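Sample intake sheet
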Amino acid sequence: MSQPYVIDQMISAKTIAARIEDLSREISGEFADTRKLVVVGLLRGSFVFIADLVRELELPVEVDFLEVSSYGDGMESSREVRILKDLRGGIEGRDVLVVEDIVDTGHTLAHVTRLLKSRNPARLCSIALLDKPSRREVDFRADHIGFEIPDEFVVGYGIDYAQRNRNLPFIGKVRFV
């Protein structure tokens, strides 16, 4: 069992919603000429973000998911990225947006980007709701970033700690007591 903790709000639901509107305008402009954008969510943490983002995009979209793991139930990345569920559809010659909840060490998004590039999409772009550049171990940055945050363990808005707190409507900092 995990040790007791409290959650302090870091980014409000209202602030997240406003930033997603801005990001959707950027992405809609960048892909204005696309026939259909394939939006690939990295499960499980991105599911809330991807749902809100695609509703704001002014583009025809197709949604698919990759399930990847580098954390398990812990707080530290294992640095070993495993694909648990692959895409259902092909992306060759298509425009693709990869949606990640948080970029920490950078291993997961760098690995997924290499994997998807090997499948020859027409364009491949990435977006992360949260970015922790102070933790980066791999020279990788998402093309679009919602919020840059300090090195804090966070939950909420799809992000969990031991499969808990994904349902919080805000991003909160975990503080152990």
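Comment: The mean pLDDT is 93. The helical segments are 13-30, 47-56, 107-117.
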